[in-house]
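Researcher: Before we compare anything, I want clean individual predictions. No alignment, no superposition, just each chain on its own. First chain goes here; please echo the sequence and then give the structure tokens.
Model: Echoing the first chain and its structure:
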Amino acid sequence: MTDSSDTAKARSFHALLQSASTEHFITNLSTTVGLHSLGPIVLPITINSEPSRPTCYLCCPSVAYIDYAREELRHFSGFRSLSRTLDAVLKLGYPLIRAAKLDRQVQINNWLLATNPLPDVPLDALVLMTRELAESNPGHVVIWRSLNDYSDKYAIRIFRQAGYQLYPARQIYLFDCRNDEPRVHRDERRDMALLDNGGFRFVPSAEFRDDDHARAQVLYQHLYLEKYTWLNPQYTSAFIRSMRVNGLLEFQGLRAQDGQLAGVISFFDCGRTMTAPIVGYDATLPQEAGLYRMLMALGTKRARERKMLYNMSAGAASFKRNRGGVRALEYSAIYNVGSSPTQRLAAFVVRKLLERVGVPVLRSFEL
């Protein structure tokens, strides 16, 4: 992607978010969206200045690190003592994050998606951008999400040189087709065969009907909100329609014989990295229909065809490993150099807890 197309994409996204409140597009998100230059390109930023009013985890570390993590404790139902211990540790995080004022933030490169792949980040441009935003937003920390220790190793060194600290966030899986095409695993081969013969018609983004946007919102809700947690971004049909029409997300669907979408997946591209921020399927159909498997096959197929790095995000660890996903640790980079000593100390304690407790748990239980 060229610098000019990066900037055009950011300006289109900003114009969209200026047309209505963020709640119109994501019902559980309240933030202010702006633009700022990183060298020759322009990136979207979000600003949150009222830490007493938690919002969606996309802009709120207390929700990301504590509320969401406490929801994840459902995976430890068979380990009651461990679950109670972890819950007690997590509760300690509320006063720590409040003391660190991490929810009072300016977030750079925030496309309001679970994963925001990094553009090229030159050190000089990063230092300048960070200083400008810190000076124009006193009392705020500066945050970048979605750095990982597989594809962003060089960028992580740049961020550290610029004064950022790295806070572990979650474990993700990556499917890398940029240089060498991964081996086709047995499960991927079966998924592709099911996609070809599953009885659903493939629908490219250009062929989405207007009523497909509302249907896509329902399918996403079935999976990400009702099955997992309502702490996930609650995207509306207006968001889905606008992101597709403006070319910010590419959608693909599976249409059932009754004419309705039975499955939907969207793709967001940044350079040679792609993510799938919106996925959903008809939960009323039997699991044997394999809708989730077919949607994931659309993702791996697209990555192979375009020779891209597919960031498969978090969750469904064994499913993704069995299809060639490589495990990586994702971080948020936080700059709080201008904060008070008390705030920096609290942030330091949060980071150490994440490193010494959070990371071992993530790796041991493949969360």
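Researcher: Okay. Second chain, same rules.
Model: Second chain and its structure:
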Amino acid sequence: MNKVITLYLNPLTANSIKMLFICNALGINVEYQHVQLHKGEHHSDTFLKLNPEAKVPVLIDNALTLTESNAILHYLAAKHHSSFWPTLIAEQSQVLKVMFWQANDFSVAVGPYAHRRVVMPQWGFDKGVIAEKEEQKFHHALTTLETILEKRPALAGEVFSIADMSVASFMIFTDEAEMPMDNYTATLDWLARLKNQPWFKRTQQQLHQVRLSETKTLSCF
């Protein structure tokens, strides 16, 4: 059996959902440590020793401590020689291009929907409002996404990669978050194909169980 890696995360947050995607896709043996952000556990002395930025996820693999979700996605895909990280440099560059965009413009524009309408209520807070300017940013980001997906079936080429995982993590709660998606047919087709992937289905099952659990942990996986 492969040595277990440890991932500190909060499974309902988009950057942590990336971790579930890649671990489920590759069948990685993982010990999940749930960090309850709404209770401030990411500001504890213990956690700050792992990541002084007080953010999840954090990966521990032997002597390596790695933060930043997209860096962890790359590390795990490359370490396991997965097709989710392509071998050709030109294709790798396309993956990185999407992931850099996701980490900046896309996450700011799309992130508020699921976080305010799904995650925060799950933590016991009121559902948040999306302002008009925020909705405009959403449509700008979705227009960019639509333009990419009108040209190819996946975000960085012909097959799904960690680029698709990085973006899809923000859209797993699309319906419940009431994202205005009706006019983005290529994006909806892409999401439908993603939802048929075993690793996507497994992640949805995990999130459903977490939301039903009083402890909100991943200990059962």
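Researcher: What stands out in the second chain?
Model: The radius of gyration is 17 Å. Additionally, The CA atoms of residues 111 and 205 lie 21 Å apart.
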